[in-house]
Amino acid sequence: MKKNFPNIRLRRLRNNSPIRNLIRENILSPHDLIQPIFIIEGKNKTEKIKSMPGILRMSIDVAIKEIKLLKKLGIQGVALFPSIEKKYKNNAGTESFNEDGLMQRAIRSIKKTISNVAIISDIALDPYTDHGQDGILGNNKQILNDETIEVLVKQSLSHAECGVDIIAPSDMMDGRIRAIRKSLEKNKFFDTKILSYSAKYSSNFYGPFRDAVGSVKNLGESNKDTYQMDFSNKKDAVREVEMDISEGADIIMVKPGLPYLDIVSKINDKFNIPIFIYQVSGEYAMIKAAAKNKCLDEKKAVLETLICMKRSGANAIITYYAKDVLQWMK
Ligand code: PBG
Questions:
Q1: What would you report as the CA-atom Rg of the chain, rounded to the nearest whole angstrom?
Q2: Predicted structure pTM score
Q3: Phi, psi of 57 (to 5 degrees)
Q4: Which residues contact 239 (CB under 8 A, 6 or more apart)?
Q5: How far is the CA of 224 from the centre of ligand 1 (A)?
Q6: Which residues line ligand 1 (CB under 6 A)?
Q7: Domains observed in the chain
């Protein structure tokens, strides 16, 4: 083998900041960020979430003020998640398609007052079921796939009717994208976009979120292993994405974020479709805790994780840090 050194000195391109800036391959922009927002009933109400310092549940009026502020900072999208009162929960999550439900009212009021921010709504039953699962439970405690799809279709349609820009099925039932797309078409919602959580893993990093939407107690000792993917697998993710694209997804999501960038990279190589990543609640809580204990520089560490996500092939990132990052960028 011929020796390259000293003909090639890779450090030559690292030795001052203008050169590093000029050759940089990936940058983070405000256009890349989506902020999750937890919605509760009430007026002028906020609640702290113990496991997610800095994040609040908020009533619709407060959320509208927050989204207006985020828009001034340059946000492109917000992802809405409801925390539903216990009395509305049942096995089939029927409150999910109540046309006067919390989410439906939230979407309508936000769309009425705010333009040019993509409103994304979660499609899944876990905030609405009394057992905390994303689907309907059968007699043997199995999750009923096809029966669940029927409810998801109703939920999707009810959000579309309220004018949501993007619906985001996060439930991992087989075949739901086709059923949802079919019903959107049939009802002439040609422009409602589907962001499919295609590669969603049964992860231990969702704990704080389950606390935020109030499903953690109901879920108890049970888990979501029979529908969310096994984190030991990669091929399964490719099949999920393949299937969702063929069923009519517009954008696909990989979730969680940082430990799953090999999946993003693989999907980015294989498919011509936009990819979003979800930096999930446990990832947020982890960085917060480390920063609080002065183990790392919060701002620098967060920006690094987000750039790494872009490097892996993500077009946009859902992150609880979106607002902070927008403020840091100002
Ligand atoms: C549920 C849903 C979850 C998240 C988004 N939608 C949790 C779960 O699957 O249990 C997790 C988001 C996060 O942890 O930040 N449909």
A1: 21
A2: 0.96
A3: -85, 145
A4: none
A5: 11
A6: 122, 124, 126, 134, 170-171, 206, 209-210, 224, 280-281
A7: 28-329 (3.20.20.70)
